[in-house]
Design brief:
heterodimer, A: about 350 residues, about 0% strand, B: about 240 residues, alpha+beta, nine-stranded mixed beta sheet, 16 strands
Chain lengths: ~350, ~240
């Protein structure tokens, strides 16, 4: 019944190649018995009110086979030097792909990184990646954790070698790209296909904007406060303006993290970090670039207390100084409307080994 | 009428494809590596820099791209291909420029490094594949030149020195243009040999002191070294390809 409906849908779509769609829907990868994908499942729809993506999808067209390959890679620990650390080790689906309750990232062999794991969502609207913005393209982002000695510790050549010697990957690369060849470009583009579809746009906040859901009076007041106090940096609908800002946190000297300055070499960029999106903020604790705040209340207190460490902090944050206890609660109530259960429970992004 | 039209279209297509095939006389470029008057031999040979400091070289690789050959009348032939020259891989030191024919040329120009567009275009293959080890993963961008070796003067672990130079934007823009004048302006040539002299990297404009500068691996000092190495090239030979 389901398959019949899929075929019907494909007739309606622009694609003339129905045979291809049927083929994809019949194709079951070992360990994939539960989930099957057709073109429609990997179709990228720009959410209403979102701008055009910055990532050029014409140069990397998402296909079911490319997406499934990217997902397998994302969840596969053989990509790391120690065969135990996958992308998903730190990027957990239920935490919007952040690492819940971990202040600093954990790499292979029990090593700590110097920053908090960011959530992965709406990545095709970002102009740069990492808290310091050092990486300028989504395709290149996975190279950083793959090759970092404190994360996955592997070389690009080492990863490719392992994949070439695997029993399943050559076939999967063939299905995704038309031949068994495994190279950096294919590896990274399939990961991008998987990451590109991680779109969060179905939260109660989105439904409220579409008029499909009511807000409580507390949430409404939170939204009002948000728009007057926080919106400058956490710009709707992505809840970030993609800028780098110093929010007056005391530097943790043990981390030796100068933030954006490490990339630009400009002294004024010290302790500036990329403004993170607030979507799914409820489930991606702890907070800040180094995970120093355990919960949203501590974040509110930081802004409300106004005890900013350096004189050169971003003056936009002063708007939030003096928030009352009620204001803080209302703001937190609003932030919780950004929790997108559709995204967090989207089975397309689940571990393919999970039954 | 229709048959005539078909025939002429076919004839035209045939003529143009034959013509392009014929005119693809590839221009050949050779790089030869030296340290002063001696040939570069990795690891085993000891050299002296301008400050009299001993050193050996263990790695020497760099990107060249955007070759332009200027004709005597000012017109230019251009190839946007990117090549990774690697001392370890002798095959990489000789290549053909597909888009450039033999001719009478006054000068050759190329980009030493990778231009900014290619630094911002995501993952690429061939010479620009990150697997070649000429790519910074933590701060996106190609490493334009790697020079590594040992020197008793170096205070680093294992007495090593490493110069990894790159960067396409502030704070370090290390993209350099090299222009070399050709002598045989009036005879048709299809091959040039270019000497890259490692000694020059240590010499001009700033004499690099291996006791003080054993590591350049980010933007600090990068432009200074790039300015030095952009002057390491000279023309060895201009000839008809063998």
């Amino acid at each position: 019944m389901k398959r019949a409906k899929q075929n019907e849908d494909s007739k309606k779509s622009d694609c003339p190649c129905i045979a291809c769609v049927v083929y994809c829907s019949l194709w079951v990868h070992p360990g994939e018995s539960v989930f099957q994908y057709i073109k429609k499942d990997v179709e990228l729809k720009i959410p209403i009110g979102f701008p055009q993506p910055l990532y050029d999808l014409k140069k990397n067209k998402i296909t079911p086979a490319g997406f499934i390959l990217g997902r397998k890679l994302f969840y596969d620990p053989i990509l790391s030097k120690d065969y135990f650390t996958s992308c998903a080790s730190c990027h957990q689906r239920f935490a919007a792909f952040a690492h819940i309750d971990h202040a600093l990232s954990h790499g292979m062999l029990g090593q700590f990184g110097k920053r908090n794991v960011p959530a992965l969502q709406n990545l095709i609207w970002k102009d740069a990646y990492m808290a310091d913005g050092g990486i300028n393209h989504l395709d290149l982002q996975p190279l950083a954790p793959l090759t970092s000695p404190i994360e996955m510790g592997e070389s690009v050549a080492g990863v490719l070698e392992k994949l070439r010697n695997d029993s399943l990957y050559p076939g999967m690369f063939n299905k995704a790209f038309g031949s068994d060849e495994i190279n950096s470009e294919r590896l990274l583009k399939s990961l991008s296909q998987f990451l590109a579809l991680m779109i969060s746009s179905n939260s109660p906040y989105d439904k409220y904007l579409e008029g499909k859901m009511e807000f409580s009076s507390q949430e409404l007041n939170g939204l009002k406060l948000f728009r007057s106090k926080c919106e400058t940096c956490h710009k709707e609908p992505l809840f970030t303006d993609n800028s780098y800002r110093n929010i007056g946190l005391k530097p943790d000297t043990s981390l030796k993290d100068s933030g954006r300055a490490a990339i630009t070499g400009v002294n004024e960029d010290k302790m500036k970090f990329k403004v993170p999106s607030l979507r799914n903020v409820e489930v991606s604790y702890p907070y800040m670039h180094d995970g120093r705040f355990r919960n949203l209340k501590e974040v509110m207190n930081h802004y409300a207390d106004g005890k900013f460490f350096t004189p050169d902090f971003d003056k936009s944050i002063e708007k939030a100084v003096g928030l009352s206890e009620d204001d803080k609660s209302d703001l937190i109530a609003f932030l919780k409307t950004l929790t997108d259960k559709t995204f967090l429970m989207d089975r397309r992004f689940a571990d393919p080994a999970m039954k | 009428m229709i048959h005539w039209l078909r025939f002429s279209v076919l004839a035209l297509v045939f003529f143009f494809s034959w013509n392009t095939l014929y005119s693809q006389a590839n221009f050949s470029i050779r790089f030869e590596h030296a340290v002063g008057t001696e040939a570069l031999i990795l690891d085993s040979l000891q050299y002296k820099n301008v400050l009299g400091q001993n050193f050996t070289v263990s790695k020497f690789k760099y990107y060249v791209s955007n070759f332009r050959l200027k004709r005597n009348d000012g017109k230019e032939e251009f190839s946007k291909e990117v090549f990774l020259i690697n001392e370890e891989d002798s095959g990489s030191k000789h290549f053909l420029l597909k888009d450039i024919p033999a001719g009478k040329y006054a000068s050759v120009q190329f980009t030493l490094g990778v231009d900014s567009i290619l630094n911002c275009s995501g993952v690429q293959s061939g010479a620009l594949d990150p697997v070649n080890g000429m790519f910074w993963t933590w701060n996106t961008g190609y490493i334009f030149l790697k020079l590594e070796g040992k020197s008793p003067e170096s205070t680093a672990n294992g007495n090593i020195f490493e110069y990894h130079i790159g960067g396409y934007k502030t704070p370090a823009n290390c993209i350099r243009q090299v222009i070399l004048t050709l002598k045989e302006r009036d005879s048709e040539i299809s091959e040039i040999s270019i000497k890259a002299d490692v000694a020059e990297i240590f010499k001009n404009t700033v004499a690099l002191d291996l006791a003080k500068l054993n590591s350049v691996t980010d933007f600090h000092n990068a432009e200074m070294v790039a300015d030095n190495y952009s002057k390491m090239f000279s023309i060895l030979e201009e000839s008809k390809a063998k």
